[in-house]
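[Q] Does anyone have a clean structure-token version of this?
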Amino acid sequence: MTTTTSKRIRLSPDARREQLLDLGVRMLATRTLEELSVDALAEEAGISRGLLFHYFKNKQDFHRAVVQRAADDLLARTRSDPSHEPTARLRLSLTRYIDYVLANPQAYISLVRGAAGGDEAMLEIFDRTRAALTARITDNLGAYGVQDSPTVRLLARGWSAMVEEAVLSWAADPQLSKEELLRVLTATLPAVLAAG
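[A] Here you go.
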């Protein structure tokens, strides 16, 4: 009987940390944050459990870093071309947003729901991510025919929260087609902003 052992690959500290974060995000696509086991991650990466803690202080630190990476990925994937007219830009960004949620349901839920768990660092990640998504609207208010004001900014943030909840609810029970969901979400933004 022959046994095979997987050979560990030596990486620089930065490359190993990046590898662990990328792997954590991939694993998070199919499991909850609580199910993101240090043992499973170490085995998948081909490192010892102890080596993981060389790069992250503890499991919570690792979870926060993975959620931050997922948030950064969401922001990068939902960026759209500013040369498009506002409705097309919004629709493209929403399409990419929905596609991200469908491809990474647990990562997205960990981002959105992680803030509700009382972890200040998770809440900060969530707030920064929502603020960045909302800034894409508030930085281009003229395109929607409205002027900047505290009320309009509040409504833009509220619309972002509505989109989060609508997409999560739709992903769990898609009673509308994706096309209809996109139509409704795209149409509601100008109407919400106009109320300001």
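[Q] Thanks! Anything notable?
[A] Residues 82-194 form a domain with the Tetracycline Repressor; domain 2 fold (CATH 1.10.357).
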